[in-house]
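User: Okay, second chain of the day. Same drill as before: sequence in, structure tokens out.
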Amino acid sequence: MRIGGRWAAGSPPPRGLPTAMLDALRAAERTLPGGEWTLTWLEDRPVVEHDSGYRLALGPDGHVHGDAPGAEESDAPAWDDEDEDDLFPDRPTSD
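Assistant: Same drill. Structure tokens below.
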């Protein structure tokens, strides 16, 4: 289990973040106002969210996905983890 944390935008992020995440954070901070980032770990991969709502996550493919500059679209096919947890799985409709 890894512990997350918070840090001010523009300050050094916590150690242990992959280079791809650090690059995406730097790109996002060029366009974001001040504020803070929150780091959590999900399945041993970092997820960071800025106070403004920008969110970045390291996907299983090793790329950063999210809605911040420098991130790939989170609904891109590479982000789909091919599991069965979809909220509305395909099912026959009744008329």
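The mean pLDDT is 82.

User: Thanks, on to the next one.
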